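Re: [ENG-882] Designed sequences occasionally contain unexpected residues at chain ends

Forwarding the minimal case from QA. Structure tokens:
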């Protein structure tokens, strides 16, 4: 099973999300070479910004999109309560959110998230039945794993994303990715491991060969680019 995650980050207005979903629903299965065997081997996950969560959640009720799941790009590290501006697991209850990206390097870099805060998000997600997709880079693979309880570590998906590869057009060399995956196995245990950082249709095939999936930023913004990646799974 290959996970293919569209991380839209802070892109897309409400109208742009509607148009993306219209185009995706029309082209998915119908216009491209996604047969039922490929469909059962992939899990497509869309991570919109919070204001578009309800819109995407409603669109995913379409029977044509049954292999597509919903994710959030982040979560509050606090439970439901007096935390103005934060989005708790309770706030997203009822939207059929199956995954939560946590600890993305942009969250760590621009919002100064710590390993412990990310670990708290992991706990809150798991307690709500949401699978955390924990993003790690080399220097904090071990410290991030250490902050998460041994039991919960085994319930995560881990995304290896090298800072230099994100949004740059340059992917991390495959041998480096394999080495980091070995390090992730040592720290987290045998969990699904995915790669992120400038994934495109021209390089996705080689990452599918060595991983359990890909986390896609820039190339997920266009339906055609994203579908081209899916066909490589
Ligand atoms: P990118 O982003 O595909 O634009 O490199 C990946 C990510 O940051 O999740």
């Amino acid at each position: 099973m290959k996970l293919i995650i569209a991380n839209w980050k802070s892109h897309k207005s409400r109208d742009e999300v509607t148009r993306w979903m219209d185009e995706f629903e029309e082209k998915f299965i119908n216009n491209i070479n996604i047969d039922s065997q490929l469909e059962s081997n992939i899990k497509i996950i869309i991570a919109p910004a919070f204001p578009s969560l309800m819109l995407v959640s409603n669109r995913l009720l379409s029977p044509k999109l049954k292999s597509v799941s919903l994710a959030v790009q982040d979560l509050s590290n606090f439970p439901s309560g007096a935390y103005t501006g934060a989005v708790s697991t309770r706030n997203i209850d009822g939207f059929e959110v199956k995954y939560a990206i946590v600890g993305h390097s942009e969250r760590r870099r621009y919002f100064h998230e710590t390993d412990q805060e990310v670990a708290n998000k992991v706990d809150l997600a798991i307690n709500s039945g949401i699978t955390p997709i924990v993003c790690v880079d080399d220097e904090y693979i071990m410290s991030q794993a250490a902050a998460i309880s041994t039991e919960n570590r085994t319930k995560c998906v881990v995304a290896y994303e090298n800072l230099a590869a994100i949004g740059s057009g340059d992917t991390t060399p495959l041998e480096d990715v394999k080495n980091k995956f070995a390090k992730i196995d040592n720290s987290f245990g045998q969990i699904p491991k995915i790669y992120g950082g400038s994934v495109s249709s021209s390089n996705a095939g080689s990452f599918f060969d060595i991983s359990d999936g890909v986390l896609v930023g820039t190339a997920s913004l266009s339906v055609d680019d994203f579908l081209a990646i899916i066909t490589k799974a």
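QA comment: On inspection the terminal residues look reasonable. The pocket of 2-phosphoglycolic acid is lined by residues 7, 161, 166-167, 196-199, 215-219 (CB under 6 Å). Proposing we downgrade this to a documentation issue.
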